[in-house]
Amino acid sequence: MECKDVGILAMDMYFPPTCVQQEALEVHDGASKGKYTIGLGQDCMAFCSEVEDVISMSLTVVKSLLEKYHIDPKLIGRLEVGSETVIDKSKSIKTWLMQIFEESGNTDIEGVDSSNACYGGTAALLNCVNWVESRCWDGRYGLVVCTDSAVYAEGPARPTGGAAAIAMLIGPNAPISFESKYRASHMAHVYDFYKPDLASEYPVVDGKLSQTCYLMALDSCYRQYCAKYEKLVGEQFSISDADYCVFHSPYNKLVQKSFARLYFNDFMRNCSSVDNDAKEKLQPFANLTSEESYQSRDLEKGSQQLAKHLYDIKVQPSTLLPKQIGNMYTASLYAALASVIYNKHASLSGQRIVMFSYGSGLTSTMFSFKLNEGQHPFSLTNIASVLDVTAKLESRHVES
Amino acid sequence: MECKDVGILAMDMYFPPTCVQQEALEVHDGASKGKYTIGLGQDCMAFCSEVEDVISMSLTVVKSLLEKYHIDPKLIGRLEVGSETVIDKSKSIKTWLMQIFEESGNTDIEGVDSSNACYGGTAALLNCVNWVESRCWDGRYGLVVCTDSAVYAEGPARPTGGAAAIAMLIGPNAPISFESKYRASHMAHVYDFYKPDLASEYPVVDGKLSQTCYLMALDSCYRQYCAKYEKLVGEQFSISDADYCVFHSPYNKLVQKSFARLYFNDFMRNCSSVDNDAKEKLQPFANLTSEESYQSRDLEKGSQQLAKHLYDIKVQPSTLLPKQIGNMYTASLYAALASVIYNKHASLSGQRIVMFSYGSGLTSTMFSFKLNEGQHPFSLTNIASVLDVTAKLESRHVES
């Protein structure tokens, strides 16, 4: 059976039609002006109304994907869900979605729910891709659903909420295909964010620790990703080899910091992607211990400024939906990917997108996609058209 | 890279050293004599003491497996956990287990937790096997952990509790290898068992519905398993082609019913494995609708009697640990597999074990293993010796 270029054939996305502007939230919360818009880098936050939850959002997005790409439900052989929004402690979200397939008599669909904070969707995606590449693959499509509603107790984390569901169809000959060999993970036992109060929707979150963990995991994944690439390809890898860098986005400011951190990594690894002027300016930070480097505001600010011109090209196109919707937990990274596809689909063929998935607790993976236009209905153009981001954003009801 | 016969290379198991005899529980609960021992078919029920939980059990079993098979922690490339015992709504059990690997500097280990009732362990196992067979496999081992503590509110379900953790090492050239092509699943949206009260450990369970769902799922998986086998092999499949049938065991009585149900399926499909005497005796049930067939006590009793001689050979060796420990949720099916390996390791080479995994809600898969003695330390003999079941059972503290 043909099994080349396994990856994402099609995408669709649902997010609540209700949102609040971060500017209005600043006023409501009595926060200083710019705290959420500049401090966090966020524009709006979507939220579920009383008739929506992760189940309804995922039912909607799966039905919509099947319809819009004209996929017979019988052609799905695997369905996996990534989520950290617990509606039931035993029954998986996947079983709810089986309602859509039972009508067609297709009950032979492997997969359940994968869970670890914001990372579950990536686990589900990698599982689905492995299934297509494995000996048991029977030629049918995989389907991955990332669905979450992120809500926080009153306080500094509350403006980092959000909600969405994303569905992705998986198979061979994909326009968004995996470069399997360079995948690198960093997994560790940390309490940066967790949900020990089972009766509450709210997490316990240590914002500062969580941010450091995120950057440490990013460093570790990037180091290993580069090492694996270099071993196989025989050339140095640097951010100049990535056309786009897509990060899990709890809030945009951390994405800005993350890209700057990759730039600092490239400087420390003496990559030619860092120009001489930048090398000079970063030299004073070369001897920091890694712990010191996570804490240095000067390094953070300096590297962000130096990487700004590259950020605008390689990262900014991915930030549209995360800035407009907020943290979507498992859906966040794929909403950022959807933003790139939507914004840049006409020029993506032959390009590489490097992805960084992070879930507190913690689990993280860096991996990359190679893009090609593909064949209708599984083409970048059609995915961008189905996503229809501008219309969806414009039709929202904005609470003020 | 060599990638033949992917499956289970090694197993280890931990269960609490404390248990209660079902006979004593009958007296304590004021239940009629034999209600739990004959009615449920159970001997003992293990339970966690106040210093044990799913995390401690899984830490213990993973450390033990690595030590007993002399596996360098650096050689693990994937670690997945199946569980429905929620300790935290966000942080996966997998992250706790990373403590074991961080010491060796190995943080590049993919995988998170898979969850749907008792089925999560099977999802984790299939994911790990697919990973080894996929293009991204880097030659390292996978590790699957099934861990649960099953506790019920006072009432008829309470004696069906139990607790255990099982670890399985995954890789090529395995003594217990997958027959990937015949895998069949049945997935549906049902409320036979769920845990909607997030603050409680206890499930909401409809015992009668759950049993019917289990048997319906079994029928559906078996039908599809046979169809896939017959399409590929060109011969009819019947239980005579399985040397052992291993079922998820919430309580032993359901396992007895399940095997009889497969026998009835073989009768309905006119298989030669059903002798003429049995065909005559089952004829009166041939025209029942499937709904009627699930409700017929006469059919249940009759088919159990007719299948009894085969049950003793093909199923009974798998029932040791589930009868002695109780329902272990995700670990239950693999404790039954461990029982077969322990009891029959010397005669398993060349044989086929058919497995049926069920998780309420519902998710289910039937699949099969081919066995060979393997090479030390990954041999059936060594697995049986590491499992050391008799000594573990004999050293238990029995509450009476």
TrEMBL record, chains A, B:
Gene3D superfamilies assigned: 3.40.47.10
Pathway: Metabolic intermediate biosynthesis; (R)-mevalonate biosynthesis; (R)-mevalonate from acetyl-CoA: step 2/3
Annotated keywords: Lipid biosynthesis, Lipid metabolism, Steroid biosynthesis, Steroid metabolism, Sterol biosynthesis, Sterol metabolism, Transferase
Pfam families: HMG_CoA_synt_C (PF08540), HMG_CoA_synt_N (PF01154)
Catalyzed reactions: acetoacetyl-CoA + acetyl-CoA + H2O = (3S)-3-hydroxy-3-methylglutaryl-CoA + CoA + H(+)
Domain Hydroxymethylglutaryl-coenzyme A synthase C-terminal: 176-399
GO molecular function, one term: hydroxymethylglutaryl-CoA synthase activity
PROSITE patterns associated with the record: HMG_COA_SYNTHASE
Transmembrane domains' residue ranges: none
Keyword Mitochondrion applies: no
Signal peptide span: none
Coiled coil ranges: none
Highest taxon in the source lineage: Eukaryota
Enzyme Commission designation: 2.3.3.10
Top-level EC class: transferase
CDD domains: init_cond_enzymes
Hydroxymethylglutaryl-coenzyme A synthase N-terminal domain: residues covered: 4-175
GO biological process, any: acetyl-CoA metabolic process
Residue numbers annotated as active site: E84, C118, H248
Chain residues that bind CoA: S210, K253, K257
Stated role: Catalyzes the condensation of acetyl-CoA with acetoacetyl-CoA to form HMG-CoA.
NCBIfam families with a match to the protein in the record: HMG-CoA-S_euk (TIGR01833)
Similarity comment text for this entry: Belongs to the thiolase-like superfamily. HMG-CoA synthase family.
Full protein name: Hydroxymethylglutaryl-CoA synthase
Taxonomic source organism: Triticum turgidum subsp. durum
